[in-house]
Specification:
The chain is α/β, with parallel strands linked by helices. It contains 8 helices and 5 strands; from the N terminus they run ααββαβαβαβααα. It has a 5-stranded mixed sheet with strand order 1-2-5-3-4. The longest helix is centred in the N-terminal third of the chain and has 16 residues. This is Protein phosphatase. One of its GO terms (molecular function) is hydrolase activity.
Length: about 170
């Protein structure tokens, strides 16, 4: 009985602390590219109303993909373990997906679990691959979401990405 009560109380506390999706959606390129925490099924319509018509999940598990498929939302899954960085192939896949969806008039949201580390890394990577400097990319994502929490390895990756892009 105590375990059931504890679980119910924990679930209620978790639900209370989840920020509404509309308050968590942050546009890096208005109406084209955004970051967000992992949405739940009931929030997909709200995301679509806000202009998100396609989703990129960078979670290392496929937990939400069936939701997007059932809702007929175009999606791309680029699994990245927490605290790590994407591969060059994943960056190219992201560029291609965002460009193709934007050409269809669809805004794209990238998400991980909380929308702060992997999401921020992917958004900054997209900006750098599109010609922004590391500093400008960081200013853009932090300006859109001051709660971004990139790890040192992610910052180092983005700085190296900028260096490589300058050479090529």
């Amino acid at each position: 009985m105590i375990a059931i009560f504890s679980n119910l109380r924990l679930e209620a506390m978790e639900q209370e602390t989840i920020q509404p999706i509309s308050e968590n959606l942050w546009w890096v390129i208005p109406r084209k590219l955004a970051g967000v925490r992992k949405p739940i099924a009931e929030e997909l319509t709200e995301l679509q109303t806000a202009g998100v018509q396609a989703i990129v999940s960078v979670m290392d598990d496929p937990s939400n993909l069936d939701l997007y498929q059932r809702a007929n939302i175009p999606y791309l899954w680029l699994p990245i373990k927490g605290g790590t960085t994407p591969s060059q192939e994943q960056l190219q896949d992201l560029q291609n997906f965002v460009e193709s969806q934007n050409n269809l008039g669809n805004g794209v949201a990238i998400h991980c679990t909380n929308g702060r580390r992997r999401t921020g890394t992917m958004l900054a990577s997209y900006l750098i691959c599109s010609g922004s400097s590391y500093n400008d990319a960081i200013k853009t994502i932090e300006g859109a979401n001051p709660e971004i929490e990139l790890r040192e390895t992610q910052h180092n990756f983005l700085q190296e990405l900028e260096r490589v892009k300058q050479i090529t």
